[in-house]
Structure formats: structure tokens, C-alpha cells
Known about the structure:
- The complex is a heterodimer.
- Chain A has helices spanning 3-18, 22-32, 50-61; strands at 36-41, 48-49, 65-75, 78-87, 93-103, 106-114.
- By secondary structure, chain A is of the alpha+beta class.
- Chain B has one domain (6-128): Nuclear Transport Factor 2, Chain: A (Roll).
- Chain B has helices spanning 6-21, 25-35, 53-64, and strands spanning 39-44, 68-78, 81-90, 96-106, 109-117.
- At the A-B interface, strand 3, strand 4, strand 5 and strand 6 of A face strand 2, strand 3, strand 4 and strand 5 of B.
Amino acid sequence: MDTSTIEHFLHTQVQAWNRGDKEGFFAAYRAAAPEGLQIEYVGRGPAGEGWPVLEGMWAQQSAKIEIEEVVLIINGNEAACHNRNKVRGSSLSIETIELYRFDQGKLMVRYFVRQP
Amino acid sequence: MSQINSEQIERFMSGQVRCWNNHDKAGLLALYREMAPALLNIEYVGRDQQADGWLVIEEMFDKHNHQFRLEVVNTIINGNEAAVHHRNCIVGSSQVIESIETYRFGPGTLHVRYFLQPPKDASVNLEQFRGFAAATTPETP
């Protein structure tokens, strides 16, 4: 996957999340990960099947959180993002550093999460 | 070294920034030797050719310490790993190399991965930096 495609995916997922567009959000992931999605919360055990994690994240968080992109760096077939997950209606935010590795239709995501 | 805890990681992460900004090479290398007595691996993500971690860290200090001041944007420690967002501010200019760096600590080992974003309209020669230099040989500085 080339740099512009990776960049497009990462911006698209944030934009879809922020406007509450579940279909667009999952479509972006399906396009980026047609051969499989793995998601790991660093420090909480090994990576697992990503689709139920993503579904759970949407169900529990999409109405509560608005994402602000702080920085996005793409090197080779990997990306690192610093995002600010702002709790709607409050001044709280949850900082995350997220790593994305794109490999032959598979996507591996690792989340570092800093609680407020 | 036994399993590392978050306080040790925090001390290393803040210590390396303090040493870098205080131009304290001995202190910086001592921190790395303490955390990585068995193995230090440093990877520039997306580059085919990598070099020995100790060479990378010494070279980085010797060639570039006077050129950069580090600003910590965010540090997250989860388990035995840390991820940081740093702004590598080029002294004497308003230009910044953004980096996201991950650190995985094992028993006596440290694996570091750098994601680097060059400044827009860079006025410095980025080829002088290992992370941006055109890959030619494994020993390209």
C-alpha cells in the first residue's frame, strides 16, 4: 500500500468517526484490510481479531468521543498517529499513539492509550 | 535485568530527554547501558538498511546533539513498552522534525523504532540524518 493510500485511509477513518458514519468507517477498514485485521492494546495481552474490537469500540465510544489528529507519520508500509480523543461535552481527552502496519491486505493495529 | 516496571521506564524516558537537552552524552549512554546491557536495537521504520543500535545512538549524539532540542509532546507507557511523540526542534530555526518513537523493554534488551516526519520546506540538508539519508550501503552515516 502506498503512502497516499495509507494517508487517505487514516484521514478517512477519523472523518467518518467524527461524523458518526459507521458505514464509511467500516468501509475504510474493509478496503485497507481485506485479508484480515488484528488489533492490540499494548500492555493488555496479545493482538486479537480486530473486527469485533472495532465493532465494540464503535458501539461504546463513537457517540462519546471526537478525534483530533495531532500528528500522522507514514514511513514505508507503516504509520504512527498521535490522536487526541476528546470526550464530548467535557474538557477531558484521552491521548493515544496508534501504530498501523499494512502488509499484503492485512492490517495490524497497536494502540498505546493514556488515560486522562 | 528482571522485568522492568513503569517507574523505571518513565525514569529512562524523561532522563534521555534531559540528558539530550543538557548535552550530557555520558549520562545518555549510561541510561541506555542500564536499560539495554544485553541488546540495543534501533530501527528507522520503512528503511531497508539498519545499523547497530550503539552506533546509531552515539552517532546521533555526536553529529546532531548541537542541532536539536527535544520537546516532549506526549509519552504513553503501557506494560513494558512506551510510545512518545517528540518534536525535534532545529536550533536557530522554526523547523521541526516530528517523531513518534516506540520503546520495548525486555530483560536486558531495548528495541527502539523511529517514525520520522521531515519538516515542510526543509532549509537543512536532510541527507545528513541517518533516518532520511538515501540508502546506499549498510554503513551510510
